[in-house]
Specification:
Largest sheet: 4 strands, antiparallel
Order of helices and strands: EEEEEEHEEEEE
Strand order of the largest sheet: 2-11-6-8
Number of strands: 11
CATH superfamily: Deoxyuridine triphosphatase (dUTPase)
Shape: globular
Helix content: under 10%
């Protein structure tokens, strides 16, 4: 599947797959200066890239496990880039750690995965069919332990 990528800044880095089996292509920060993320802070990090995605697809922005082990997460994970969006891709990062964390220019800050979707045709009804679970919410299917 082809996705067109436009560099918005000369020093932006194209997304890259780092192994043959990788589902996600790493995306990089595109910064004029370092960004310090203090504990509890949320920041928006630019990539310097814009994309043109075929209709019927989205790009999901997902966290990198290497950052997550340091307390750096994507609070809206996965983030969605819609097929009609042409602006700069930016990644929302949050520091759940206890120490400030520095993002440098060209750091890998997330990964993107192309995902096919289908539009939902919503239909209002007066009643839904029964199911084994019913209206049971969070935790209603058990603890996950076998007795």
């Amino acid at each position: 599947m082809k996705v067109f990528v436009k560099k918005l800044h000369n020093n932006a880095i194209f997304p890259e797959y780092h192994s043959t089996g990788a589902a996600g292509a790493d995306i990089y920060s595109c910064l004029e200066e370092d960004v310090v993320i203090k504990p509890g802070d949320i920041v928006l990090i630019p990539t310097g890239l814009a994309v043109e995605i075929p209709e019927g697809y989205e790009i999901q922005i997902r966290p990198r496990s290497g950052l997550a082990t340091k307390g750096i997460i994507l609070p809206n994970s996965p983030g969605t880039i819609d097929s009609d969006y042409r602006g700069e891709i930016k990644v929302i990062l949050m520091n759940l750690g206890k120490e400030p964390f520095v993002i440098h220019n060209h750091d890998r800050i997330g990964q993107m995965v192309l995902s096919k979707y289908e539009k939902i045709e919503f239909e209002e009804v007066s009643q839904l069919s029964d199911s084994e679970r019913g209206s049971g919410g969070f935790g209603s299917t058990g603890s996950g332990r076998k007795s």
